[in-house]
Task: structure prediction
Amino acid sequence: MKFFDAHAHIQLPQFDTDRAEVLARMQADEVGAIVVGTDFETSKVAVELAEQHDFLWASVGLHPNHPSTDSTSSPQASSGQVTLEEFEVLAKHPKVVAIGECGLDYYRQEPTEVIKKIQHERFKKHITLALATSKPLIVHCRPTRGTQNAHEEMFELLTANSGVRVVMHFFTSTKEIAEKYLALGCYLSFPGPVTFGDMYDEAIRATPLDRMLSETDSPFAAPVPCRGTRNEPIYVVEVVKKIATVKSLPVDEVATHICNNACTVFGLW
Ligand SMILES: [Zn+2]
Result:
């Protein structure tokens, strides 16, 4: 494996017409990936995909904004609670290498006291599951526009739970925020938008090579030069190229570090 996409949703309907071709391109380009669930159903399908391909692994969890009203969820889940039990069975699967995505999102949902409580409770259940299974957390953290509110709460939550390994998914924030997560021992996973300009270069420079990952968040957020089109895991190479440029290092060297980091944090092989 040459490249690693630490966060892809290739189980979503955007890939229903050509998933086999997308997977074939990954195999040809030697790109491995974590297929990330956002609810019970997409988590289950992520596990099924990972079972079928040796270059895929799965993560299972409930997105902070997910309303949990799908038919596979229990009545408790419809009220916004993760029922730990239903994810617990999936989480034990050998190809499940992380718990998530989970976390706090105050961008798409206004952080009223009720919303905060639901998201905090849900996130804490994922922490419990990560600790119980000795698997890392894939964390989504998005503050209200113009604020750092979700990050500030996340620092507190992670400080209080220092035993859990954490990958900060879709890291697109400042050098200062990057340094705080790094001080807590987190890995930072950089997505397509780092190629849009130089606004995240400082955060990339501040992140040591042995603490970074690359991701696509496919089908969303395609990097330049594919910006605006459906994203897919092979485009992770554009993220790696950008990191290499910012760090003035050969692409191969950055790619190797990232594969090794994925191996370490997710325990892949
Ligand atoms: Zn995602």
User: Anything to note?
Assistant: The beta strands are 3-8, 31-36, 56-60, 96-105, 137-142, 166-168, 187-190, 212-214. DSSP finds ten helices and eight strands in the chain.
